[in-house]
Amino acid sequence: MLTAKAEEIDRIVGLEFGADDYVTKPFSPREIVLRIRAIFRRGRKSRRESERRPDSIDPARHEVRVNGRQVHLTSLSFKLLRALMQTRAACRNAIGLLNDVWAMKA
C-alpha cells in the first residue's frame, strides 16, 4: 500500500487486510522499486505452494480435493474458489469477484 495514512492503526489494518507492504508518504521511488523486487523474490520462493491446485471441485457435494485429500472449506470460501477457478486466466477486480460469489448458488 502507498498511502498518506501513517498512524500505527492504519498500518495494522492495511497489513491485516492483506497488504504485502505498507509505505507512507513521503517515499523514494527507488525504495518502492526495491520493495517490489523483494516481494517478487518471496513469490518465487513459494511458487510451488501457489501451484497446488485442486484435483477436483464437486459443487453438488460441496467438496474439494487436493492431492486426493478432501479439503474442508466454508461455504463462502468454496464459492470464492469456484469463482477463481472459473476465470483462471482473467484478472479480476475485487468488486466483480465478490458480485460473482454472492450471486453463486450453494
Topology readout:
Blueprint: E1 2-3, H1 8-16, E2 23-24, H2 29-45, H3 47-50, E3 56-58, E4 63-66, E5 69-71, H4 75-86, H5 94-103
Parallel strand pairs: 1-2
Antiparallel strand pairs: 3-4, 4-5
Helix pairs in contact: 4-5
Features:
49% helix; 106 residues; three-stranded antiparallel β-sheet; two-stranded parallel sheet; alpha+beta; 5 helices; 5 strands
Task: Report on the architecture of this protein.
There is one protein chain. By secondary structure, this protein is an alpha+beta fold. It contains five helices and five strands. The strands form two sheets. It has a three-stranded antiparallel beta sheet, with no helix packed on it. A two-stranded parallel sheet has the order 1-2. A hairpin with a 4-residue loop joins strand 3 and strand 4 (63-66). The protein starts with a strand and ends with a helix.
In summary, what is this structure?
The chain is an alpha+beta fold and 106 residues long. It has 5 helices and 5 strands, in the order βαβααβββαα. The longest helix has 17 residues, at 29-45.
Count of beta strands = 5
Structural class label: alpha+beta
User: If helices are DSSP runs of H or I spanning 4 or more residues, what is the number of helices?
Assistant: 5
Name the beta content range. Answer: 5-15%
